[in-house]
Every structure is written in structure tokens, then in C-alpha cells.
Amino acid sequence: MTIERINVDVFRAPVTRPVATSFGVMRDRPAVFVRIEDSDGAFGWGEIFANWPSAGAEHRARLLLEDIADLVLGRGVGAPGELWAGLTRETHVRALQCGEWGPFRQVIAGLDIAAHDLLARRAGVPLAKMLAPGGAAESVPVYASGLHVSAATDAIAAAREAGVRAFKVKIGFDAMRDMADLRMLCADLGEGEGLMADANQAWTLSEALRFVETAGDLGLGWLEEPIGADAPADAWHTLAQASSIPLAAGENIVGHADFTRAVQGGALAVVQPDVAKWGGVGGCIGVAREALEAGLNYCPHFLGGGIGLAASAHLLAAAGGPGMLELDANDNPLRDAFFAQGPAARGDFVIGARPGLGIEALPEEIARYRTLSRETAKG
């Protein structure tokens, strides 16, 4: 069967409290959802990364419609991963011409998610089961993330009430205040609870070294992206050797070769590819299995809408291991509307028995946030 139709919908939901990171502030919640349909009427849903920059959502939608769709329409979905590999190869010169490697990778990742959803639907099984026919987890534990370290107390309390036992806070703002807030949050943890910290690439190596020396007694579960994802391997090794806190990264690593170097390099304890930023389902399941085989922890990164969250959960369920699913604790109707009982019940994301990602259509309640809706079809 060939792909006959592509639908792209862009949404922007206003928020009362912006999401602050060390590199900038998200003042609304965007999402780009893509639906592909084949000549037999089978369909699949995907999501394209759109958190950054602020104009990214509309740009990526138009990139798909005006620069990539001609390579998609009329081609077969094929075996899992074929669409991603073909589009990556065929768009190389286009991405090189404009230097927009990230947007091209993100659009292709969203299409790969949709292709895997379609194939699992045709097989009549959940995506996790298609990826791991020998057995996939029925649910995966979540941890609450996206919390500014200075304003995390109430959000952690709410997550705790929902059964969540691990929490990740954003740091990299003011060193002294960050440390004071971390100490307070750690002191308030209950039995069996854990706290992680994410610097979002805020520091130089020397700044990161000062942090791990000062925070070494806190018992943090991991320290995420303390330095740039593109920092030299020697810098990551130096930091890992000096740190008693496990290091985590992956959302800003791209390519099989770079992930293999990261997995085998010895600096990381936690590997975190983002299904909507690079690789889609096919690329990320390979990274997950490689990380687990190397004795590392696989915890998929995600901070977007409901489709990408579901894809991340199915990936984790298929990969196995002790990893947790990232669940942004900030308000996001473009995520929550997809899950009637909320995205997590008693601290777990339940995979369910519905085929594919288990998503039939976009929820009606998010229609008011739509900023763009386009369809393009073969012929």
C-alpha cells in the first residue's frame, strides 16, 4: 500500500505559568500532529517536535507540507524504519542547502511515528507489542518533570498525591539559590522517592565540576545535560570521573553513530533520546536496546503533546529495563486531552490493548487551540 494523504495540524495552547529553562522561556504550549493514510484507508498518527524556537511549530508544519510531502506521497510504508531511512537519505541535500538539520530530522521523526502507528494498526496490536512481540510491559512508571527548582514544592506535592515517586527539577539559573532549593527539596523527599536535576546545557565544564562537588551529598538520581551535548568527549569524561551523581543526556544527540559513541563512551549512566526530535520510533528503539545492552538506563525524553507521549511510553514498554517515562508536570491540554483518565494512573502510564498508539482521532476539546490545518494528497 502507498501513502495517499497527509494531514498536519498545528496547535498553540496558552498557559498561565510559562515554562522556564536555563536557555529560555516557553510562553505557550505548541504541538504539531501529523496523520498519514494509505491507499487501503489505514492511518497512523505522529508528532513533530515543536517546543523551540517559539515559531517552530508553524515552520515545521510548512516544511513537511511544502518541502517533504512530495517525497512521501505515493511511496509505500514498507517495513518498520524504511520510511525514516529513505527520507533521511533523500532530504540530505535539502537540509544541507539550508542548514536546517534539526527541523528536517524532526519532521521525519514525526512521520516515522505515524508510519509505525499505521503498521501496528494494520497488525491489530499495540505498538509496544509490535516492537517486542516476545513481551512488552503493560505499564511504565512515570516521573514528574519540567519543574523550576524554585517553584517545585507544590507541583511535587501534587505529583506525589497522584502516585508519582520521582521528580526532576530544572536548574542552571542562580547557582547559590539553585543549591539551596535542591537541598530543601531533597530533605523533603519521602521513603522510596527520588529527585533528579536538569541544567539544560547551562554550564561550562568548570561550572559543572563545581556543582557536582557541592551537590555530591544530595543523592540525586541523575544530573541531566550539565554541559553542552556537543561538548568534547573529554569534557564529559572529566565530569563523569569527578561526579558521584550519574550523568544523563540524549535529547540533543542525533544519529546512530553519535548515540553509539555516547553509549560506549563511559560518561553517561542514563540515555534519553527524544522520539519527536530524531529517529522516530525506529531510531529510538535501537538506541534503547543498545543502551540497555551496555548496562545503561533508558529513559525517553519528551516534553510535548499526547501523541509523542504515547509513542515514548510504547517505546519504553517495548525496550524494558528500569527506565521511567518523562511526564511534564506543567499544564498542557494538548497532552492531557488525549487521555480520559489522565496520562498516568497511580504513577504509571498504562499501555492498553488498542492497536497502534491507541489514538483514533484528535480530541475535540483541543480544536480551539488550532492555528493551522492542512491536507495534501497524492495527485
Automatic annotation (TrEMBL):
InterPro entries: DgoD-like, Enolase-like_C_sf, Enolase-like_N, Enolase_C-like, Mandelate_racemase_C, Mandelate_racemase_N_dom. Pfam families: MR_MLE_C (PF13378), MR_MLE_N (PF02746). One of its GO terms (molecular function) is lyase activity. The keyword Lyase applies. Its EC number is 5.1.2.2. Keywords: Isomerase, Lyase. Residues 149-246 form the Mandelate racemase/muconate lactonizing enzyme C-terminal domain. The keyword Isomerase applies. PANTHER family: D-GALACTONATE DEHYDRATASE, D-GALACTONATE DEHYDRATASE-RELATED. This is Mandelate racemase. It comes from Roseovarius halotolerans. The gene is mdlA.
